[in-house]
TrEMBL record:
PROSITE patterns from the UniProt entry: G_PROTEIN_RECEP_F1_2
Organism the protein comes from: Sciurus carolinensis
Transmembrane segments: 25-49, 55-74, 138-162, 201-224, 236-257
Gene Ontology molecular functions: G protein-coupled receptor activity; olfactory receptor activity
Protein name per the record: Olfactory receptor 149
Domain G-protein coupled receptors family 1 profile: 39-286
Phylogenetic lineage: Eukaryota, Metazoa, Chordata, Craniata, Vertebrata
Amino acid sequence: MNNYTSVKEFILLGLPHTEGLENMIFVLFLAFYLLALLGNLLILATILASSSLHTPMYFFLGNLSVFDIFFPSVNSPKMMASLAGRSHTISYWGCASQVFFYHTLGGTECFLYTVMAYDRFVAICHPMRYTVIMSHRVCTSLTVCTWLGGCVHGSVLAFLIFRLPYCGPNEVDSFFCDIPAVLSLACADTSLAQMVSFTNIGVVALVCFLLILTSYTRIVLSILKIRSSEGRRRAFSTCSAHLTSILLFYGPVFLVYLRPASSPWLDSVVQVLNSIVTPSLNPLIYSLRNKDVKVALRKVLFQVTHLSGL
């Protein structure tokens, strides 16, 4: 980090155009945050408790649930504290931590969705070799690589942003510290940091997206070769929840980071959707559209209610 930095704390300006609506937004965000935590904890507990879900597909879904617990916790508590009338300030290192963890987890999610797409590709296109290709060792290695890759991604971006000096204005035009809002406060030329961060995020998102697209192109071609309509329906149903989550993830990424011009209001709305709303929807997407999860969830809930009644 640069020794010439004199700013010790930043002021988060919060969500634009929400004056007078703080209490309503606080309740709404708190509801989504609790839904994300409880919903993903329930999905994770169901996967761990149900031997029928101890397969590669649900192993990766369990990792997604862990991610969806951590991701909204990066900026939601601070944002809700600000909405409740507490301090809008965040320390210099707190701001750096938000940038690091937000992009570490964002990169991890990107890699994880790619691995999940590959898992579906192997399951549908090579069903006879599925258990051999997606062995426990392979699944564990892929998962470790996704988290390590996300950590490297977040480290590079945080280093680029906070090696710059911050010596004057300290008002972050957002509800949390993110690259576009923080870079505009730097007291030095930010062109290199902007170019590298734009390229880094763009390359990671684009490569993962192309790999996912390739996997699903092969999947669709394989499904179309299935003769029975029931077989095609079942094959598509195993992929529908994953595709829905991918669309909810990539939409905000492209809108916020891969646009030439920045709009604080649009960025805030999209980042709220990405940070809080999507993690709270994923448990619903995967439980409502997946028969195995629904059956296992009912068993777990029945066992819990049975034990609590004793």
